[in-house]
């Protein structure tokens, strides 16, 4: 595997997780 591709994939996954977390806390404030 290409290390550059793995790094890019990890970055995309990180951004997706971050946006998903923001959506979750924004849509479900009572869940905190």
Which properties best describe this structure?
Trp_leader1, Trp operon leader peptide, mainly alpha, 32 residues
Secondary structure: elements and pairs:
Blueprint: H1 3-27
Protein name: Trp operon leader peptide
Pfam family, one: Trp_leader1
Organism: Streptomyces rubrogriseus
Description:
- With 32 residues, the chain is mainly α.
- The chain is built from 1 helix and no strands.
- It has one helix spanning 3-27.
- The longest helix is centred in the middle third of the chain and has 25 residues, at 3-27.
- InterPro entries: Trp_leader1.
- This is Trp operon leader peptide.
- It comes from Streptomyces rubrogriseus.
- Pfam families: Trp_leader1 (PF08055).
Concise overview:
With 32 residues, the chain is mostly helical. The protein has one helix at 3-27. The mean pLDDT is 72.
Order of helices and strands: H
User: How many separate helices?
Assistant: 1
Major sheet size, sense and barrel closure: none
SSE class:
mainly alpha
Radius of gyration based on Cα positions: 14 Å
Mean pLDDT score, rounded? Answer: 72
What are the low-pLDDT stretches, counting only 5+ consecutive residues below 50? Answer: none
Total strands: 0
Helix content estimate: over 70%
Query: In what range is the share of β-strand residues?
Result: under 5%
The geometry reads as rod-shaped
Distance between the termini: 39 Å
